[in-house]
């Protein structure tokens, strides 16, 4: 194919627009907007602060478009946020049946109330397990939140590789100090694509990802991840270590 045979590049321009609000959050935006309108009758002083609250609620539930990297052996971030912990830990007892008893490397991503809270699957495959556990609402940035807070474990089994092998990745949605609800979009048996939306956690939280031994971490402490886009693990790669500058 010559340069004349190649399809022309698009010349369409794209302008910035506010990301769409996920359907799960539209009712909260409507409630906040309704209260704001009511306050116009009661007090002009309270009106403008509530306008700010309404905009924040819409921002919290924003659902931006993401482009997921393609390639074998990639594990992508399930959440937007700050990488706060990378450490080898025992597998949660609820996941031992799917992931085994040997300790695994856990990458923890903390989501503040300003981050996008739509969570996405790190790999493509079949949802093997969804386990919800009620618990406390400690600060999600604490290590013990993994064992004590309200949380939901999810295990995804990859499609068979050319040699017939499969890989299972477990990750955990953890409610935080302000969060009070983990909302799942999937159930056991569902097929998912890498980066597909699988749920959200309302108002601040954390997501832990458990990497198999043949998957090397590709993020550093203090780095910010983007759900569905940032590669946090890679098959057979050299581990990335250190603290983001």
Strand order of the largest sheet: 9-5-6-7-11-3-2-13
Instruction: Specify the overall morphology.
Output: globular
SSE arrangement, N to C: HHEEHEEEHEEEEEEEEE
**Helix content, binned percent:** 10-25%
Q: β content, as a range?
A: 25-35%
What's the rounded overall pLDDT mean?
85
Separate helix tally: 4
Distance between the termini: 45 Å
Structural class: alpha+beta
Which stretches are poorly predicted, pLDDT < 50 over at least 5 residues?
A: none
Biggest beta-sheet profile:
8 strands, antiparallel
Number of strands: 14
Query: Gyration radius, to the nearest Å?
Result: 20 Å
Describe the structure.
The protein has 245 residues and is of the alpha+beta class. 18% of the residues lie in helices and 30% in strands. It has an eight-stranded antiparallel sheet with strand order 9-5-6-7-11-3-2-13. The longest helix has 20 residues, at 23-42. The protein is globular, with a radius of gyration of 20 Å. The protein starts with 22 loop residues before the first helix and ends in a 10-residue tail after the last strand. The mean pLDDT is 85.
How would you summarize what this structure contains?
The chain is of the alpha+beta class. It has helices at 23-42, 44-60, 96-99, 145-148, and strands at 74-76, 81-89, 104-111, 118-120, 125-133, 151-157, 168-175, 182-184, 191-192, 197-201, 205-211, 215-217, 224-225, 231-235. 18% of the residues lie in helices and 30% in strands.
């Amino acid at each position: 194919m010559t340069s004349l045979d190649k399809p022309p590049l698009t010349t369409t321009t794209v302008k910035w627009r506010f990301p769409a609000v996920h359907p799960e959050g539209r009712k909260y935006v409507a409630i906040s907007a309704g209260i704001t309108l009511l306050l116009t009758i009661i007090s002009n002083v309270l009106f403008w602060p509530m306008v700010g609250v309404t905009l924040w609620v819409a921002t919290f539930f924003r659902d931006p478009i993401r482009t997921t990297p393609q390639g074998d052996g990639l594990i992508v971030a399930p959440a937007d946020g700050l990488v706060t912990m990378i450490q080898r830990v025992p597998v949660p007892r609820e996941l031992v049946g799917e992931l085994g008893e040997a300790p695994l490397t856990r990458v923890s991503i903390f989501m503040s109330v300003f981050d996008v809270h739509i969570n996405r699957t790190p790999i493509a495959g079949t949802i093997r397990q969804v386990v919800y556990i009620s618990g406390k609402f400690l600060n999600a940035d604490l290590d013990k939140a993994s064992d004590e807070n309200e949380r939901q474990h999810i295990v995804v089994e990859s499609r068979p590789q050319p040699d017939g092998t499969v890989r299972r990745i477990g990750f955990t949605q953890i409610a935080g100090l302000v969060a009070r609800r983990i909302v799942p979009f999937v159930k056991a048996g569902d097929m998912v694509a890498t980066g597909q939306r699988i749920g959200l956690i309302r108002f601040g939280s954390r997501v832990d990802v458990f990497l198999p031994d043949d998957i090397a971490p590709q993020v550093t402490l203090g780095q910010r991840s983007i759900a569905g886009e940032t590669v946090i693990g890679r098959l057979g790669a050299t581990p990335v270590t250190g603290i983001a500058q």
